[in-house]
Amino acid sequence: MQVTTLLRLSVATAVITIVLKTTAWWITGSVGLLSDAMESFVNLASALFALAMVTIAARPADDDHPFGHTKAEYFSSAFEGLMIAAAAIAIVWAALRRLMDLQPLEAVGIGLALTVASSLLNGLLAHKMLAASREHRSVALEADARHLYADVWTSAAVIVGVVLVEVTGWLWLDPVVAIGVAANIIREGARVVWGSVDGLMDKALEPEVQASIDRTLARFAESSVRFDDIVTRRAGSRRFLDVHMHVPATWTLGRAAALRGEVEQALMDEVAGLRASIQLLPSNVEPQFNAVQASR
Predict the structure, then answer these.
(1) How are beta strands 238-247 and 226-235 bridged, if at all?
(2) Within a 10 A sphere around the Cβ of 182, how many other Cβ atoms?
(3) Which CATH superfamily is domain 3-200 in?
(4) 231-269 pLDDT tens trace
(5) CATH class of 207-295
(6) Residue 30: Cβ within 10 Å count
(7) When you count CB atoms within 10 A of the terminal residue's CB, does the N or C end of the chain come out lower?
(8) Which CB contacts under 8 angstroms, 24+ apart, belong to 128-135?
């Protein structure tokens, strides 16, 4: 399933869960269920923003963006993290007000049933989205999926809290659970924001992908051909590789270029979404890149 299709499904699911969870809060009066409903509003805003950023990221490269627009997905992750933090602040405010004015809960059974139904929807969608995010290497889709998983665990904690309030009669437990929910989603928000910042700093490719690149280059390396100064980075779903290929100075340019073409094709066959840039150098020449690195 396409990334945009899943995000549209996420928007629709968020609307449904908002209706279910808001109704659950309205009929029970539980501030814990209110916190759960507020996080669903965050889900909706995040899914809409992620859909917009993924649409931008899919645009082809142009004169102003020769490497494409794939980094737009990281802005989606950052926005989602900030929205999570804003929701947490609102939840804490509501919970503190309830602590100062404790109230009994009503129609708990119906409210919990609605919450469980919404959690099942979120859980199923999150599972599908996380699998698709790995297939398409979509940062925005992964962030949305992990947020939905966090929402499922949040709902589970709220359900347990409401049940305990009903069993024990401890009304203070409801706002305390809400504050715990806020703390958990702040942690999740911080993780999401850091992931987007890390991506914008041109992080290297994953270790397993690096290993695939090394194995591919090793197939072409021989006594007269060597590779060095291997640098990788990722930008959303795209992957980039810069490497120097040293060949004998006696080789013709045509022979060297032909081998470079074979290496580039092998790398792209091995690593999906890879753009490889291979610089040809005679075996007895070292690039100035090494001198620059050594002087730092």
Answers:
(1) antiparallel
(2) 25
(3) Cation efflux protein transmembrane domain (1.20.1510.10)
(4) 888 776 678 889 999 999 889 989 999 999 999 989 988
(5) alpha beta
(6) 31
(7) C
(8) 128/1, 128/6, 129/6, 129/10, 132/1, 132/3, 132/6, 133/3
